[in-house]
Amino acid sequence: MKYLTKEWLNINEKSFIINWLKVRKIKEKTENRLYKKKKTEYIELERVLVEEINKDNEEEKRKIKEYLSGKVSFREVSGLLEDMGQILSRKPIQFEEVTAEKWFDEQINRRIELCRTLPKEILNEIENIRLFSLGATTKEIREKVKAYCREQRREAVKTEKLAQRKTEQVEGILKLPIEFVLYKERPILKMEQKGSDLYIELDDLPKLIIRNVTFIEREKEYYYKWNENEYACPWTYVLESELHFIKGRYEVHFLLENKHKSEKQRIGTIRYLEQT
């Protein structure tokens, strides 16, 4: 990646630590009580999310079935007909509480790893890093973290805007109109190489074709295909995307995140060159 690298991601994530950090009175049992409370809240949010997705899916099925039986007009389902087969074949997602519990624990572990990268002058004042990662601290420490996060946020935003500006400049010379900002925060549905060309399909976007591709950085030889019918399905997600034009060739950058119910979160990068 040119700008939106793993190092940039670390800065960006640290800038949000202040969002989940609150001033609390620290007592002997605070850590266990807070852990149980946060875990219960997380599991319930996941459960509600699955219920809402299932409810929306059933509503889409109902509309299509009513259209097929002549009960509703084309206008009411026009946006659904293109994916009619896929919608009708969807099965209810089964919520997995054990997986949600594991995800919560992994989230806290990632927070601990992130917090360990805070400046030493802040870390030296944190007596319990796990409790801190659960969101509890003193007023004095929070004020120091707030100032630090503000600095990190400025740096992250500055770099992100630079990457976006450079990408938009290159988008202006493409033969086909492509907005790479739309590739951000999208799961990869399919990625395959045919001959010298690479085909990438992302959720709700036209297929991206990279001609005469050359891989210049590729940390993973695989990707997880997203399955919308499975709660804990493994998937590969595009966190950030960039486009550059270097020595007569287009250079595409993706910052990827792999998620899997049996693995920790993994961040990787993939970069391609396309012959113009």
Overview of this protein structure:
It is a single chain. This protein is of the alpha+beta class and 276 residues long. It has helices at 6-14, 30-68, 84-88, 97-115, 120-123, 129-133, 139-171, and strands at residues 22-23, 136-137, 186-194, 197-202, 208-210, 214-218, 235-246, 249-259, 266-275. It has a seven-stranded antiparallel β-sheet, covered by helices on one side. β4 (197-202) and β5 (208-210) form a beta hairpin. The protein starts with 5 loop residues before the first helix and ends with a strand. The model has no long low-confidence stretch (mean pLDDT 86).
Question: Count of DSSP helices?
Answer: 7
How would you sum up the global shape? globular
Cα(first) to Cα(last) distance is 20 Å
Helix/sheet category: alpha+beta
Low-confidence stretches: none
Helix content: 40-55%
Overall mean confidence score, pLDDT: 86
Strand order of the largest sheet: 5-4-3-7-8-9-6
Number of strands: 9
